[in-house]
Amino acid sequence: MAAPAAVEGVAVTALRSVFLRVRQAAERAGTQTERVRVVAVSKTKPVSLIRQVYDAGHRCFGENYVQEIVEKAPQLPEDIEWHFIGHLQSNKAKTLLGGVPNLAFFHGVDNEKIANHLDRAVSGLGRNPLKIFVQVNTSGEASKSGIDPSDCVHLAEYVKSHCPNLLFSGLMTIGMRDYTSTPENFKTLSNCRLEVCKALGMAEDECELSMGMSGDFEQAIEMGSTNVRIGSTIFGPREYAKKPQN
């Protein structure tokens, strides 16, 4: 179903506003705007709307459901840098990677099992290594995926040493929905990065941080995020009537 032209125009305007806010937040943080990747999260939105944002010059998009991304990606240009965000059932790894050859990042490795499945799927398909973020549950909420902060070094080391087809690229988290503890959540992830970099012998700029969404991305950038995942602020409210399954 095509999105109305008026709505599509709003998305492009919203994207430009987001980039302005990103630049301002980066300036406050004393970092370069180019170091912040804006992932436009397009879940539940039609291909036509994504195409409008693409035509405005954006190339980085994210999805949360396997069914959606494998349906949308073949209908869109191959130079899009796709990001898969969130929990993935291990038996869907090959479907995801086979259906989206231009999947560049996976935000959400939170156990050795999913790391192994992704590693084998990449190898079996003969595709380039997949960049991954280890997901950390910094809020302690049972409803969120992610490892405990105390386990982040172990999982990062496991990916580096046992998954040759995956590239450990950094850490990812989701702050509390009501944002009351967002600064604390983001600080926890930053501390995890220090521990991981020390253990793996990495420079801090080699370990990215994926944190911050529509309601808190400016604060996330000010606290060191290099990837912000922005959906509704760009595309408008989501429609969950036909929520796909992973």
Automatic annotation (TrEMBL):
CDD domains (UniProt xref): PLPDE_III_YBL036c_euk
Primary role: Pyridoxal 5'-phosphate (PLP)-binding protein, which may be involved in intracellular homeostatic regulation of pyridoxal 5'-phosphate (PLP), the active form of vitamin B6.
InterPro entries in alphabetical order: Ala_racemase_N, PLP-binding_barrel, PyrdxlP_homeostasis
Domain Alanine racemase N-terminal: 22-237
Cross-referenced PROSITE patterns: UPF0001 (PS01211)
Modification type N6-(pyridoxal phosphate)lysine: residues: 43
GO molecular function: pyridoxal phosphate binding
Keyword Cytoplasm: no
The protein's name in its UniProt record: Pyridoxal phosphate homeostasis protein
SUPFAM superfamilies linked to this entry: PLP-binding barrel
Family (UniProt): Belongs to the pyridoxal phosphate-binding protein YggS/PROSC family.
Cofactor(s) needed by this chain: pyridoxal 5'-phosphate
Pfam family, one: Ala_racemase_N
Keywords carried by this UniProt record: Pyridoxal phosphate
Record carries keyword Disulfide bond: no
Natural source organism: Rubroshorea leprosula
